């Protein structure tokens, strides 16, 4: 929990110091009240006392109470400022850290868990800091000061107060022992609830299409019930605190007055007035002591959950990055658009088997190199090594003659136009999606944007939309068809004007006619750029300069379409499964 405070700025630390000063003043004023109460009690019981003296003491009590209230408001304001500033920095830190993650780190946390950590967990810490600055600092000061005030009044009263405090501490300790593990469970169950809710909402079309509403409801109901039951158990245990503390305070008050009655009864003369005054004062101070421990108990309610949340946030912030930035900002002159893999092997973290084994090939500037193979053969994994979504386990991946690990990631990514297997569009407009990101070049003009959309065969449908290039795109592109989304994502890559295009099965949603037109226009308009294409359809890749056939992570064939039809059995099987023998012979 303490590690979280390193994200506070000097301004917040200044507010914390000021809060401590004001809290000391607040405690001083609170503890002056019983002194004036004692004075009033003595004046009321002493013959010849003036009413003006009672009013003066009462006025001072009122001023102390008013001053304490003003200081409490100031401390509350400072605490709220510190807590909100800390939560802001933590959210920013978690979001920035998440954006810097490679696929390996992202896979270590579920999306639902990252959302919970950046919302629910940080809110827990914010509430604890806001309460803690007012309570955790005040409670020990109040307890120690009040105990010093009552020391020497009467050992009987002191013993009664001590017993009350011990009982209170035992109750709080037992609750913490039983409740703390449950807080960890609650946060994990919250992650699970978010995961199931997100899954159901994301796949809403499929849920409706398969009449699976009842199944999803039952699934959600189960995780919701688990979270509810655990929360109820925690809250029931915590609910014991309030009546338990009330019982302890009432019992202590009764003990003080019972002991006081015996002491006064056994005393004589003027001693009785002094004892009665001491009893009233001691009762007030004893309540302050118990109140201090009650304030601490409030912290103990919040602190365990906040500690769990802090550990979860620190887990994200302290996660070491596996993809470390290099220093090279640009490749040597004369080498552009060349990709080379030298004896590359790769396996996922904690996996036993290699996904890719001893892969070697070169794609020269301007070439179109295609990758094909059965599902699970390692095509997409191989493609992901070039932009360093993962780093190769063995061997080297070179772009323009330089190992990708030596590039600054920004410089490497500026060389690439990447179109992912799963199309990703962002809420905004057609224009904002096509010009998305920084490509290290001058901002695109309207003509360049239109040109990119035209190359991607999207001009017709875009110009038929309301607003054309300013037409609204929903989150995830849900207001577009699969083919339209795919063409806009290709236009986004074209607009970057990169050295290298990477198409990870990016033509699958296009009809054959559009596919052919797009590839023809792309080759003509982006002449000089290198293209890597992952595809399942023979028709998409048969015109490639080089086709690499993968099977179980190994290269089993490399060459042109006509060559592979004669020499590669795996390629023949794929080809004959899609096209007839006559069609292949005619080609």
Automatic annotation (TrEMBL):
It is found in: Cell membrane. Residues 17-305 form the ABC transmembrane type-1 domain. The chain crosses the membrane at residues 12-29, 54-80, 129-148, 160-180, 245-265, 285-303. It holds the Pfam family ABC_membrane. One of its GO terms (molecular function) is ATP binding. It is a multi-pass membrane protein. Residues 339-577 form the ABC transporter domain. Keywords: ATP-binding, Membrane, Nucleotide-binding, Transmembrane, Transmembrane helix. CDD domains: ABC_6TM_Tm287_like. It comes from the Bacteria. This is ABC transporter ATP-binding protein.
